[in-house]
Amino acid sequence: MSLENLVTEVRTKAAREVAEVRGRTAAERKTLEDQRDREIARIRSEQIQTSEREIQREVTRVMAAATLQSKKILTDATEKRIESGYALLRERISAYTRTPDYEALLARMAELGVSVIGEDARFVVRAEDAGRLPTYLQIRVLSDSHAKALGGLVAQTPDGRRRLDLTFDEILRWKEDSVREILSRK
Known about the structure:
Elements: H1 3-96, H2 100-117, E1 122-125, H3 135-138, E2 141-146, E3 153-156, E4 163-165, H4 168-174, H5 176-185
Parallel strand pairs: 1-2
Antiparallel strand pairs: 1-3, 3-4
Helix pairs in contact: 1-5
């Protein structure tokens, strides 16, 4: 073999090897680029899913807060309506205590007090109601005690151990749940 042939053969072999290396490099580069693209797509997909979950959580949180706020506003409005209703009810009860019908009711309350507490029942009434009871019941009024109520009376034993509170305030307290339910519906 001549030197030229040897050089040509070495060059040809080198060129083939370079071509093979370039081919492998190109194939590896293509494989790496494909892997990179798949990894980027996977990361983007995960980020999109994570973002969507976070957005959904935030939307849920905001909706829950808005729902809670609307319930609070509704509850506050209902409570104001109930308070207003109670104020109107108290005004009407106060007006009722100035009518002749109230005197009859007061007498019936006193008779009920006597029937429940006994013949020795004594009454605590508002100062302005002491003279509104029938004469036979006025002697049972405790003159040193006055009820601080809208109206009605408290029947009790002389020693004060047993009591029957028939004041309008106490009756409203007994029926508070029913009154609140009625007032909340309006």
